[in-house]
Amino acid sequence: MPRIIAERADTLPAIAEVFREYGYEGASLALIGKATGLGKGSLYHFFPGGKEEMASAVLAEIDGWFETHMFGPLRDSREPERAIETMFDSVESYFRSGRRVCLVGVIALGDARERFAQPVSGYFKRWVDALADALVRSGRDRLPARALAEEVVAGIQGAIVLARALDDPGAFGRTVTALRVKTRPEPKVSRAASRTRDRSHTRRQG
Amino acid sequence: MPRIIAERADTLPAIAEVFREYGYEGASLALIGKATGLGKGSLYHFFPGGKEEMASAVLAEIDGWFETHMFGPLRDSREPERAIETMFDSVESYFRSGRRVCLVGVIALGDARERFAQPVSGYFKRWVDALADALVRSGRDRLPARALAEEVVAGIQGAIVLARALDDPGAFGRTVTALRVKTRPEPKVSRAASRTRDRSHTRRQG
DNA sequence: CCGTTCGTGTACCAATCGGTACAAATAGAA
DNA sequence: TTCTATTTGTACCGATTGGTACACGAACGG
Hints:
Chain A has a domain at about 55-185: Tetracycline Repressor, domain 2. Chain A contains nine helices and no strands. Chain A has helices at about 10-25, 30-35, 40-45, 50-75, 80-95, 105-110, 115-135, 140-165, 170-185. In chain A, helix 1 (about 10-25) packs antiparallel against helix 2 (about 30-35) and helix 7 (about 115-135) packs across helix 8 (about 140-165). The first copy, chain A, is elongated, with a radius of gyration of 20 Å. The interface between A and B is large, with 44 and 43 residues.
């Protein structure tokens, strides 16, 4: 029999798309087999634990990607504001303007949530923590930074829901941009509109 | 045979909970039968179209509830700011601090989205429109009102995801409260003084 | 008292589910 | 070549899926 797939890791992107599209329960082995081009024999060879192991592997890979490209820089970068901007760039390209769904979020909403409670909560907890950390290091107080971080992460997840529901990728971009602006250090002394007001509240909190 | 269920509408809350918990695909007739206490015979008597008709009926009922309790008041109330506050109250109690999931959002994320595209997009479109309308009538300009409305609706959906993922209902409350504050006419003066001011901007729109 | 209608449970259907077993086929070492 | 370990396709398993058929029982009009 020919060897098509060299590594188990090569199958993960295709499997991830199936889980994204159909959810954990709806992702049947038939669909996964079609997406990967592998029969059950190969699938169970790579993932002896069946669907649960496939989902775990996919979640771990996603987690690793976010850890490398977003959480790590948010925590470690010496330019936290730049790391935050980069995070928003990554979010916009990764979720493809809301056309691509967040698998972790999907699992959190479904009944597979309990089975994957630890990776799911870990992913979101580390996201919020890392973003809050970057916000603190860019000059905000700890409590409002944490509140803003939660708001941003929730807003991104909601933007995906809204964009898909309305079938309007623009809704994703608009919402994410609004969140992006809100994380910038100097709030909203913007262009031409509120010239008369901004003098009165420059002495806000740190 | 005894008549337990008087009306078809009496089954909808139970069916809705099953769809919420397991999604459209995951909600099997066995689960629905158990939740309603009805056998397949009765279910197909009430819903000749099967699962699809059940889901449509549930979506319609949810839509009606939101239309009556939230969208309508947002559009029609002569006190738009009060209607907005009431909306947030309703959201907090309806979604039970994120323990209860938004079925429309769940369907929007899954592969049943296309099948129910019209009711799903209609629900969110009318929510955003109604909220934007209330925000305009409470004194905001059209464009920022619409942007804020989208941000709020997305934020609510995301708060559900986040609260469930973290298994922390507090995250829902915090995020929703932040959104609520943001919709208030005078952002961040002190606590109670805003009531004396609103006389001054009734000259806004007509 | 009968007959129709409505509500209900149950048996059944083909299809598909996740998972197992296993034999065929390949690649690499000898 | 020959042997062995690794990949692979496929047949099969019991359970469950959405859906149909139908017969039984209560309610109701005559």
